[in-house]
């Protein structure tokens, strides 16, 4: 039997976050490394507020090849890196660090991961489509930017705090037509929408019976996508399905943000199916 064990040549990776105990990233990436027979490993690190700078210095000192960064460190980490990819700079957050012989580059794979999962899993191609986004928080920023860069014809952003929706809409206006609004204004544009993307925590475990907007107007021909993946099928998606809309769950965004990170670190195509199996088995 040829069982892999960690050794002095193992290339190290990890994720920095607080909290981090429930992260599925180690399971996903270690499965990907094993699948391709790479001598590499990935661990979770509980980095408390105030210790991020030291932790990033540790990436250099210990020659980790790559690190994912999650809540609450995605913004602060930008201060400690050598280079920020222009997309991550525009989004204003880094979720992936690549270490090239001590030079640390920050990237953001959340938005491009989302767009890739939409294409691969729902067969939805963003170019030329009109999108309604629900929510304008941290998670929405990468999604909005990537939808705009991918060639969406229009991105409408609805949010409880309208000023945040307007700000986010303005930030992507160099790339596409965009407008911020409150939830009540959805009525005026809903006849014109191809895709709805939900980007808030409403409906997330344990509040699984919550839904953010009226879904009675959802219809066949509409695609409804939720970035929440716990539960895998949210109330929003259930109601969308009942009305004949095509649905797309949030697990794909997690898998494909990881796939891009894996590809940046290893230069190999990510074994997406195995990664998904590993994550689903860990639920
Ligand atoms: P994240 O990084 O997860 O996106 P965030 O930046 O705090 O977190 O953003 C949370 C998003 O969920 C925001 O769009 C927020 O709306 P506001 O900007 O108006 O606060 C939205 N949100 C959270 N709870 C909500 C609720 N009960 N009803 C409506 N929107 C909610």
TrEMBL record:
Catalyzed reactions: shikimate + NAD(+) = 3-dehydroshikimate + NADH + H(+); shikimate + NADP(+) = 3-dehydroshikimate + NADPH + H(+); L-quinate + NAD(+) = 3-dehydroquinate + NADH + H(+)
UniProt keywords, alphabetically: Amino-acid biosynthesis, Aromatic amino acid biosynthesis, NADP, Oxidoreductase
A GO molecular function held by the record: quinate 3-dehydrogenase (NAD+) activity
Positions that bind shikimate: 23-25, 70, 95, 110, 229, 257
Pathway: Metabolic intermediate biosynthesis; chorismate biosynthesis; chorismate from D-erythrose 4-phosphate and phosphoenolpyruvate: step 4/7; Aromatic compound metabolism; 3,4-dihydroxybenzoate biosynthesis; 3-dehydroquinate from D-quinate (NAD(+) route)
Function statement: Involved in the biosynthesis of the chorismate, which leads to the biosynthesis of aromatic amino acids. Catalyzes the reversible NADPH linked reduction of 3-dehydroshikimate (DHSA) to yield shikimate (SA).
Protein name per Swiss-Prot or TrEMBL: Shikimate dehydrogenase (NADP(+))
